[in-house]
Amino acid sequence: MKKLLILLLLSFSSSVFAECIRGDCVNGQGTYVWDNGAKYVGEYKNNVREGLGTFTYPDGAKYAGEHKNSLKHGLGTFTFPDGEEYVGEFKNGVMEGQGTLTFTNGEKYVGEYENNVREGQGTYFFPNGTIKTGIWKNDELVISN
After folding, report:
1. Among residues 17, 18, 62, 94, which one has the fewest Cβ atoms lying within 10 Å of its Cβ?
2. Rounded to whole angstroms, what are the CA distances from 145 to 64, 124, 141?
3. DSSP code string of 21-48
């Protein structure tokens, strides 16, 4: 749940003062910066982030991947400020579909996500070799295979 709140806050962290500092930020390739330190380098269409690009958040989090209507949408990699990393599918700004979340302690979850939480079939790998596979509901393992 903490990751969901961080992702949602980061999605809306851009301030109103911003400017295109390089390229074409309307229809093309450009670099856009906000006064809070956020930065986007990538493709634009009709004045929105559309296509491939990298968005760096003020706290150091970073998303590199596909955008649609200025949201994370498609395949991408989101690196959290603490170094945890999600690689997978996004839809309308949230982790949605297949993905892999790698934790800084070496643990890893590979499976399905819905609205930024583990939801559906997935496998959790522990550094000591333990593996838990099953059905996840609201970020919790509910049925173990």
Report:
1. 17
2. 34, 12, 10
3. EEE-SSSEEEEEEETTS-EEEEEEETTE
Neighbours of 12 (CB within 10 A): 7
Q: Could you tell me the residue range of the domain that residue 22 belongs to?
A: 2-144
Nearest Cα residue to 49 out of 89, 18, 87: 18
The CATH number assigned to the domain holding 140 equals 2.60.450
CA distance readout (Å), 72 to 27, 109, 126, 136: 18, 20, 28, 23
**CB of 47 within 8 A of CB of 26?**
yes
**What pLDDT digit, counting tens, does each position of 5-62 carry?**
444 444 444 445 789 999 999 999 999 999 999 999 999 999 999 999 999 999 999 9
- What is the number of structural domains in the chain? 1
